[in-house]
Amino acid sequence: MRTVLESPPTLVSVLGTAYRRLTGICEALTVEVADPRTAYDQPAFTGAELMSDQSALDAFLEAEATRIHTRFAHTPRSHVTASRALHDYAWSVALLMSGVWYLERRVPRIRPQSVRLDLAAGAYTITPEPRVACLPGDPVAALPGAVTVAGEEALRAELRAAVADHMRPLLTALGPAVRRGPRALWGMVGDDLVSGIWYLGRTLGREEDAVRAATALLPEPVSPYPSGADFRLLTGTDGRRHTTRTRAGCCLYYAIRPDEACGTCPRVCDTERLRRLEE
């Protein structure tokens, strides 16, 4: 009987497995892991093209405007379209990195050219790269492309930096269309970084643990993020306590559905938040 030898693991295969695990858990994360045999039938651009090619950025925003109109029968103003597109991109890419950190205690570095966007579907494809930070003793530490950091806080710093490094050129490119300054833009990125971890924890039935992790990641403003995680508890009429936070940067969903603003929107008071949470 012939013995079939398995290929030794690489960072690409390890991260591919981690991304697939993450997307399997998170229904709202519309990301596929790249298969080099896949052909793209729809107009698609890389994240790098959005940051350097105005025609790609225009197509990205036009596709978002079309999705909003199709879903809500609403024609958004241009800065609303840009805000919604930025929010979706930041939430998705940040969760790819923060989700692997939360589940695996590893921080992948994702370059913009490794993210591909299917404009028609509003979906993303990630190409894993051999670029990861890990803790001492991690089995992947010996693999080419792995960088070992001193401990948990150093790993959190790596995550903050990895998300910031990816998003910085996109904020520069999209800033004029969003019509907000750097503080508001970085506030949105910080919100999406925190909310992705929170969402993952709730999905796994581990909300309290995820809130602790997100709070340790952003315990206070840490440049370039202008705000900490800032979770707090609301007590309902039945004595139950509910976790909430207030976004530092608005995603402008309220401009599309005024009566359905996000539960963490600065425009939503605590009374309304509790009403929704207790429904």
Automatic annotation (TrEMBL):
<dbReference type="InterPro" id="IPR024726">
    <property type="entry name" value="FhuF_C"/>
</dbReference>
<protein>
    <submittedName>
        <fullName>(2Fe-2S)-binding protein</fullName>
    </submittedName>
</protein>
<dbReference type="Pfam" id="PF11575">
    <property type="entry name" value="FhuF_C"/>
</dbReference>
<feature type="domain" description="Ferric siderophore reductase C-terminal">
    <location>
        <begin position="247"/>
        <end position="267"/>
    </location>
</feature>
